[in-house]
Write a structure and sequence with these properties.
By secondary structure, the chain is α/β, with parallel strands linked by helices. It has a single domain, classed as Rossmann fold (3-Layer(aba) Sandwich), CATH 3.40.50. The chain has helices at about 15-30, 90-95, 100-110, 120-130, 145-150, 175-195, and strands at about 5-10, 15, 30-35, 45-50, 60-70, 85, 115-120, 135, 150-155, 160-165, 165-170. Strands 3-1-6-7-11-10 form a 6-stranded mixed β-sheet, sandwiched between helices. Strands 2-4-5 form a 3-stranded mixed β-sheet, with helices on one face. It has a two-stranded parallel sheet with strand order 8-9. Helix 3 (about 100-110) crosses helix 4 (about 120-130). The mean pLDDT is about 95. InterPro entries: C56_PfpI-like, Class_I_gatase-like, DJ-1/PfpI.
Length: about 200
């Protein structure tokens, strides 16, 4: 039933797997995905970072790929999209300072549209003020932000994901199978509701 048009908001030093894997998976499953970054145009790239778990107290970080954007942030309107994906990495930390990004994130919640966020993507959700009373997973170091924003932190395995209505979240890229499966189920349910309402 894929017909959904998905907006992905990303930025420099976004987590490599958390950007490229969902982007390619959703495209392969028939969804339309527009990847944008404030201040950049379609055809430009964002640098990615690979966060790995190698036995240290936190993840290690290595330079990843150049991820090509296929849409221009200034040209897109959140209203034209059915769902939102927010990858993790270091990008959410600075993207949350952009008022237009915050406005876009709020639109998806105000309209009850599906949203998938992973890892540090919760920083953007917290800054947008959309987590009050919502269950949200994130990289464990983001737990204080989730809770300070009024969210209920889901302390789950790094390979698990959690859904709270239209919001699907996960701690990090090892959760991709569960996170993407749950997100696609929410997308399909939303599309079915829209079809039945038409």
């Amino acid at each position: 039933m894929p017909a959904s048009k998905i907006l992905m908001i990303t930025g420099d030093f976004t987590e490599d797997y958390e950007t490229m894997v969902p982007f390619q998976t959703l495209l392969a499953c028939g969804y339309t995905v527009d990847a944008v970054c404030p201040g950049k145009r379609a055809g430009e790239t964002v640098a990615t970072a690979i966060h790995d778990f190698e036995g240290d107290q936190t993840y290690s970080e290595k330079r990843g790929h150049n991820f090509a954007l296929n849409a221009t942030f200034d040209s897109v309107r959140a209203e034209d999209y059915d769902a939102l994906v927010i990858p993790g990495g270091r990008a959410p930390e600075y993207l949350r300072l952009n008022a237009d990004v915050i406005k876009s994130v709020r639109h998806f919640f105000d309209a009850g549209k599906p949203v998938a966020a992973i890892c540090h993507g919760a920083q953007l959700l917290a800054a947008a003020g959309v987590l009050k009373g919502r269950t949200c997973s994130a990289y464990p170091a983001c737990r204080p932000e989730v809770e300070l924003a009024g969210g209920i932190y889901a302390d789950i395995s790094i390979s698990d994901a959690v859904s709270d209505g239209n919001l699907v979240t996960a701690p990090a890229w090892p959760a991709h199978p569960s996170w993407l499966r749950q997100f696609m189920a929410v997308l399909d349910a939303a599309a079915l509701l829209e079809t039945n309402a038409a």
